[in-house]
Design brief:
The protein is α/β, with parallel strands linked by helices. Strands 1, 2, 3, 4, 5, 6, 7, 8 and 9 form a 9-stranded mixed sheet that branches. Helix 9 runs antiparallel to helix 10 and helix 9 runs parallel beside helix 11. The longest helix is centred in the C-terminal third of the chain and has 20 residues.
Length: 264
């Protein structure tokens, strides 16, 4: 299984979240009290809670245990669109032969009906088992899949594997899109002894670019560029050998008003 990033946004923005939004660990805690199986930051839809809160007793049907948000890390700070993943929490199971493929099909179908079609769904339903029975369980589960077509889209995994493959966004190291050494080379004031306006123009370009990253919520890139620009600007302002015209001085004041990051 490829590594995935959990995405709480698709869950907290879901229409069902006000009714059954919970932490995945809290859902697990209901049946497995005192056992910390999952990252406490993972948000989910507690589908049993939805049935209890939104349906009358006689109308309730079985659902999968939980739904989480997932996206793929495509590399170089890029991610796929988010989608929903259905989970069955089976940490207390000792024997997968107790699983019913037909019953599972009904659970999945009803869960999909509740979720609606506005968010894409993962094509695989994951069964999460306790580590101590995982190896034996995985082997038995795959044997059952070959004999029961209702389980063909189901995959078993241990709690350790779940936490290994379902990671937070912070686990993806950020790869800078711009080379700060190149920025510093472009803004070497010694390259523009007689053309301060050119230096100011290049500085304005990079300030605009940094702010564009900020507007696009790429704070990582913004935080890489701005400290470098600020350092270069302070070096420029403290250089007593640079001769400035009145127009240069006015342009510098305007720059510092437009880009307060340079002087803060």
């Amino acid at each position: 299984m490829e590594a995935l990033i959990y995405d709480n946004g698709i869950i907290t923005e879901h229409k069902l979240y006000p009714v059954c939004g919970k932490k995945l660990q809290d859902v697990s805690e209901k049946d497995y009290h005192g056992k910390k199986y999952f990252d406490e930051h993972i948000e989910c839809l507690d589908m049993d809670e939805y049935e209890k809160e939104a349906c009358r007793a006689g109308d309730r049907k079985e659902t999968v245990d939980a739904v989480i948000g997932i996206k793929k890390h495509l590399g170089k700070n890029r991610f796929s669109d988010s989608y929903l993943m259905l989970l069955e929490l089976r940490m207390g199971y000792e024997n997968v032969k107790n699983l019913s493929g037909t019953k599972l099909t009904d659970k999945v179908s009803h869960t999909q009906e509740i979720l609606g079609r506005d968010k894409p769904l993962c094509g695989t339903i994951y069964f999460v088992f306790e580590n101590r029975v995982a190896q034996r369980t995985l082997s038995m589960f795959h044997s059952m899949k070959r004999a029961n077509r209702n389980l063909k889209n189901c995959e078993p995994m241990s709690t350790d594997d779940f936490n290994k493959y379902i990671k937070p966004r912070s686990s993806c190291s950020y790869e800078a899109e711009n080379d700060v050494a190149e920025i510093r080379r472009q803004l070497d004031i010694n390259s523009y002894p007689d053309d301060i306006n050119k230096f100011l123009g290049i500085m304005r370009y990079w300030c605009d670019k940094a702010l564009q990253y900020k507007r696009e919520y790429n704070i990582d890139e913004y935080n890489i560029i701005i400290p470098e620009l600020k350092a270069i600007w302070h070096e420029f302002r403290s250089n007593k050998d640079i001769e400035l015209t009145d127009d240069n001085k006015l342009d510098i004041e305007i720059m510092e008003e437009d880009y307060t990051e340079l002087r803060d």
